[in-house]
Amino acid sequence: MKLESTEEVPVKSKAPWLAVVGLLLLASSIYAQDLTGDWQGTLQAGNRPVRLIIKFSPADNGGWTGALYSIDQGFDRGLRQPLVSVARQGEQLQFVVDGGGGAFEGRIASETIEGTWTQRQSQPLVLRRATPETAWNDPAPHSSQLVTVDTNVKVEVLDFGGSGRPLVFLAGMGNTAHVFDTFAPKFTTAHHVYGITRRGFGESSVPKDGYSADRLGDDVLAVIDALNLTRPVLAGHSVAGTELSSIASRNPTRVAGLVYLDAGYPYAFYNAERGDLVLDSIDLRRKLDLLVNGPIDSRPTIQELLAELPRFERNLQERLRELASIPPPPPEPQGMNVQRAIMAGAQKFTNLGSVPILAIYALPHAFPGPPDDPSRATRQAADLETTGAQAAAFEKGVPSARVVRLPNANHFVWRSNEAEVLREMNAFLATLK
Fold first, then answer.
1. What are phi and psi of 352, to 5 degrees?
2. pTM higher than 0.85
3. pLDDT of 366-401, one tens digit each?
């Protein structure tokens, strides 16, 4: 080839070659980046169309990373399923969704990616690049921003608008603030309403650490500071009770009130009479370590262990009976297990200070199946005992709190019993000064 010749080339002829090489490099750079952004496609789930959004972004290793959002399934639009692998060779693209959420193989062509989606069975799927005109935007009445709460950690904050005392909703385990998209706007006439997606979920950062109860509580306080909110009311669902109780026990003057939406469980208020397997396991691990590596005189630690082990054994037997009646769990997601990290960082809260509190329990919870189903009756009876004891302990341990029990309500109490939850929350909010 002439380019390998030792013959001298006139200077004026080098320019076209350099221009061609430059254009090729530019084209290659553009081509390498053309996955970045949102791609949209529709699958058929039976007779129902299901819209998917795939977000691709460059990975630190020079490859690609991404996530899938199934925006028509469930009521939490912000739920994010990471892509555990994205492989691209030229025009060919493959990716796999975490936790057995499906796999795709197809061909990239300008503004489309055509291929096959496989999840139990295969079907064609065409992904089209989203544009400002075609994007499936969130219809909920809120704006969204990322707020820095820790070093290299940002959390998603939704602003539903409104005026008056700030009211901040905190999502439960595995959910995002979008879970309140239809409920939060009902308070905007008297409150400026926000929602927070905790670290590890949705659009928030997913760091390797920082999931202890107090650190998660500090994230909420960091948002309050960043938005200049004065003594807001916090309303938390499910495991968000841990953030509520962390703030109540350490910084009660920072908030005007707390609402526990089926969130007043052992991670929010510890019932020493019954104990809790997870919290007691954490405490047991600490005491066993103290027994081995602690002071020479280990008699106090041994006495504590002997007093607590019978309750721990009883709770182990109870958990074994529960596990025998439920099917095996689905495949565990790869990468950072945020839910396990949150539970490992739980604490035993026994003093919630003097913060005004409303605690709403689904008691007993609604269970699927016909009313005369014996297994359903058995589960309800067990729930009446365990959740009933927890609600009674919360009521006794926090005598100033208003504790409300909603029979046969769903764990997402504001969805199954919206009118009752609205009534209770508005009455509670009206008492705060």
1. -100, 20
2. no
3. 988 787 787 788 888 889 999 999 999 999 999 999
- Do 432 and 257 form a contact (C-beta atoms < 8 A)? yes
Question: What's the 3-state SS for the chain?
Answer: CHHHCCCCCCHHHHHHHHHHHHHHHHHHHHHHHCCCEEEEEEEEECCEEEEEEEEEEECCCCCEEEEEEECCCCCCCCCCEEEEEEEEECCEEEEEEHHHCCEEEEEEECCEEEEEEEECEEEEEEEEECCCCCCCCCCCCCEEEEEEEECCEEEEEEEEECCCEEEEEECCCCCCHHHHCCCHHHHCCCEEEEEEECCCCCCCCCCCCCCCHHHHHHHHHHHHHHCCCCCCEEEEEHHHHHHHHHHHHHCHHHCCEEEEECCCCCCCCCCCCCCCHHHHHHHHHHHHHHHHHCCCCCHHHHHHHHHHHHHHHHHHHHHHHHHHCCCCCCCCCCCCCHHHHHHHCCCCCCCCCCCCEEEEEECCECCCCCCCCHHHHHHHHHHHHHHHHHHHHHHHHCCCCEEEEECCECCCHHHHCHHHHHHHHHHHHHHCC
Reported for 103-112, long-range contacts at CB under 8 A and 24+ positions apart, including other chains, are 108/34, 108/35
> What distance in Å separates the CA atoms of residue 2 and residue 22, rounded to the nearest whole number?
19
Q: CA-CA distance, 191 to 189, in Å (whole number)? A: 6
Domains of the chain (ranges plus CATH)? 37-129 (2.40.128), 143-271+332-431 (3.40.50.1820)
Q: What is the pLDDT of residues 32-54, one digit of tens each?
A: 447 999 999 999 988 899 999 99
